[in-house]
UniProtKB/TrEMBL annotation:
Family stated for the protein in its record: Belongs to the 'GDXG' lipolytic enzyme family.
Species annotation: Rotaria socialis
Source taxon at top rank: Eukaryota
UniProt-recorded name of the protein: Alpha/beta hydrolase fold-3 domain-containing protein
Domain Alpha/beta hydrolase fold-3: 123-217
Key word Lipoprotein present: no
Length: 224
């Protein structure tokens, strides 16, 4: 099953954002200067959205002598928080935080239940970030919008990240969380016969695809 989601057009931003950030970081922050130039702003290859994002990124980027995971994660969180500040509080349903106990750890999840949510399906979301960055908060606005538009319960999974937790830890944990939700559908607000789907962006898309090949009783994958 594939949702005809208008929001998917906006999800493309996530991939673009990370690529732009890597260019800024590895090439000594060129956008700190070019993002403010008239030539950059008038270049027809850049949409208004791309220009605004590059300027936002340049304004938040702090000098660093290295690319530690902590530095990158904080920057990623800051960019998403600032870029999505007008969207974060727009979700009209309820948000509940829980933890799922897996074989190796308790994994935090966010459950987004829109007003008048349908009970016949549920979607499990895995965020992107190269298996190193990202969290439930960085991708909150995407899941908010998706849950509202589809009138479906969405669950966002905060699997553990590398390099502290290497493959296949994050994949195994994501599979365990998915199995738990499938086995306890009613506990998450849907009917026992509800269809369960998975979705993710970037690294999360790889996780959701792998889950489809590994975990039984996955009914659909949302294509992004």
């Amino acid at each position: 099953m594939i949702f005809p989601l208008p929001y998917l057009q906006k999800c493309v931003r996530a991939r673009k954002y990370f690529i732009i950030y890597l260019l800024i970081t590895y090439f000594k922050h060129p956008l700190l200067s070019i993002a403010k130039t008239r030539r950059f702003q008038m270049d027809p290859r850049f949409t208004d959205e791309a220009i605004a994002y590059c300027q936002l990124t340049a304004s938040l980027l702090q000098p660093s002598n290295g690319l530690s995971a902590e530095f990158l994660r904080k920057f990623f969180e800051d960019v998403h928080a600032k870029g999505n500040e007008k969207l974060i509080e727009t979700f009209t349903g309820s948000l509940e935080e829980r933890k799922v106990t897996t074989k190796s750890a308790d994994i935090p999840i966010n459950i987004y239940t829109p007003i008048d949510a349908e009970k016949d399906k549920l979607v499990i979301y895995f965020h992107g970030g190269g298996w190193t960055l990202g969290s439930r908060s960085t991708h909150q606005s995407i899941v908010n919008l998706a849950a509202d538009l589809t009138k479906t319960i969405w669950i966002s999974v905060e699997y553990r990240l590398g390099p502290e937790y290497r493959y296949p830890i994050w994949l195994d944990e994501s599979c365990d969380v998915t199995r738990h939700i499938i086995e306890n559908k009613e506990f998450y607000g849907v009917d026992q016969a509800a269809k369960i789907g998975v979705v993710g962006d970037s690294a999360g898309a790889m996780i959701s695809t792998s889950i489809c090949q590994t975990v039984k009783n996955i009914d659909f994958q949302v294509q992004t």
